[in-house]
Design a protein that fits this description.
By secondary structure, the chain is α/β, with parallel strands linked by helices. It has helices at 2-27, 32-59, 88-97, 118-124, 135-140, 143-159, 177-183, 195-205, 226-230, 259-289; strands at 63-67, 77-82, 104-106, 108-109, 129-130, 165-168, 209-218, 236-244. The mean pLDDT is 87.
């Protein structure tokens, strides 16, 4: 109850500061004034995350086993990639990366814009909202693919104005054993990565990115629900972060039209995913041995 109350109060406090700027943003054209406003909005979001970190330290007894974050810089553009298991992942990433790199920007489901209070905040902060379509729908309406690509391109144009960290959960959804079985995933701890949005983001602003920040999140005592998180029932979180160069050839190819490029991109992403899967096995094995 204390954690829920502090989260709510922190959110209302900073949204009260953010909403007037969001209204001003509606009236301003793109330009220098808009860029300054975007930076002010980013500062508010950063302070909201700092407030969340404060109540987490107050109410949680979690042991954090983290490595790889000390060399990160705040003055660049990054593509951040992580495995995805729970809504808690977002709080973990924000808690550890806040003020170390620019504000994380997520691609969100369209329905989340209607979430009370926070949906407007996401819009004001230029979080892009994407519509999810089934494979059957895309077969009937292939033009929807181009609509999503255009949404991604416009989002990346906005991201290029100020240093930004573009967050990508390559699996596209949270890992569950049922989804793992349904996919026939070749990985022990991961779902298959979805390369399309990843490739499109690199194509749109790959030259801007200083590096790929690859994050592996492990909950050795079981994947927590958000309720368990609020109750302080996450004994330990293991996070490994590494900066990787982004091969220049993957910032220029046409993923949709060039099958050779698409196959090479799939191999590169699959190799990253294989390394991540082996790392998770190693970290889980170390926990079991302990």
């Amino acid at each position: 109850m204390i954690a829920s109350l502090l989260l709510a109060l922190n959110t209302v406090l900073w949204c009260a500061a953010l909403f007037p700027l969001a209204l001003a943003k509606l009236a301003l054209p793109a330009g220098a004034a808009r860029a300054r406003l975007d930076r002010a909005l980013g500062t508010i979001a950063t302070r909201w995350i700092s407030g969340n970190s404060a109540w987490m330290r107050l109410t949680q007894r979690t042991v954090w086993d983290v490595s790889g974050i000390d060399a990160l810089r705040h003055d660049g553009w990054y593509l951040v990639n992580a495995n995805h298991q729970s809504w808690v992942d977002v709080f973990v990433l924000q808690h550890l990366l806040n003020r170390r790199i620019p504000l994380l920007k997520f691609f969100l489901k369209q329905q989340l814009i209607y979430v009370p209070v926070i949906g407007i905040a996401w819009w004001a902060l230029d979080f892009p909202f994407m519509r999810r379509h089934s494979k059957a729908t895309l077969r009937r309406h292939p033009e929807l693919r181009e609509r999503d690509r255009e949404t991604t391109r416009r989002a990346c144009e906005r991201f290029a104005r100020v240093p930004t960290s573009v967050m990508n959960f390559a699996e596209g959804t949270r890992f569950t054993p049922a989804k793992h079985r349904a996919q026939g995933s070749p990985y022990q701890h991961l779902l298959k990565p979805k390369a399309g949005a990843f490739a499109l983001t690199l194509n749109a602003m790959g030259e801007k990115f200083h590096s790929l920040i690859d994050v592996t999140i492990v909950y050795p005592d079981g994947t927590p629900t958000f309720w368990r998180f609020l109750c302080g029932r996450i004994p330990r979180v293991i996070v490994r972060v590494r900066q990787l160069p982004i091969p220049a050839q993957y910032c220029a190819g046409n993923y949709e039209a060039d099958p050779t490029f698409r196959a090479a991109f799939h191999r590169w992403l699959a190799a990253l995913w294989q390394e991540k899967d082996q790392q998770i096995s190693m970290l889980m094995g170390a926990k079991a041995a302990a």
